[in-house]
Amino acid sequence: MNKVDEHELVRRAKAGDATAMEALIRAHQQGLYAFILRMCGRPEIAEDIVQEAFVRVLANLNRFDTRFRFSTWLFTIAKRLYMNSVQKLCPNFDSEVLELHQNKSADPHSEVAREESMGNAHGIIESALDTLGPLQREIVMMFHQLNWPIADISQHLDMPLGTVKSHLHRARKRMRQYIETDSQMNERVQEVWA
Fold first, then answer.
1. What does each C-alpha distance from 153 to 4, 29, 66, 105, 193 come to in angstroms?
2. Between 70-89 and 43-59, two packed helices, what is the crossing angle to 10 degrees?
């Protein structure tokens, strides 16, 4: 959704248009849920945070500054809610985030092998992400999972473009080094990509 359409929906939602509110939620619900789930690794917490973020956003629409993207504001609120929950709950990062694509025509044996391979990929990615600090982890997820451009990440984090690029580069390098130095994990990577 582009900025103009987003702002039009916000304007209508501020005026009490329930359809506009619903459209804002639908446009951002899946992306926000995926983002928070990737950060916390716990579906029940991600659902609660996303729900609370939308409640807060809709209750405070009059505070939205139209110089910025609505999505940036929403993601910032959700991230703050997540950070507060981390301090309170200290969640376990055992994520089941990567969804498997179901191929109904495949034989059961190849489906089991594919699911095992995808499980290995999930484990490798989670292990490598766990080596990153919170900021680099967030940047990697926004760029690779949410497909945010560097400029949007920069604006969202209030950080220069070059700094975001540097964090992204260092995060990828750290993840790659972690995988390459563990022979067992490196072997699993080869299985996944074979």
1. 19, 18, 18, 40, 29
2. 130
Question: What pLDDT, on a 0 to 100 scale, did the predictor assign at position 98?
Answer: 40
Of the candidates 101, 90, 84, 112, which has an alpha carbon nearest to the alpha carbon of residue 41?
90
For residue range 56-81, what is the model confidence (pLDDT) as tens digits? 998 888 888 888 888 888 988 998 88
Reported pTM: 0.52
In sign, the C-alpha dihedral spanning 150, 152, 156, 158 is: positive
Domains of the chain in sequence order:
3-89 (1.10.1740.10), 108-193 (1.10.10.10)
Asked whether 48 and 89 are in contact (CB, 8 A), the reply is no
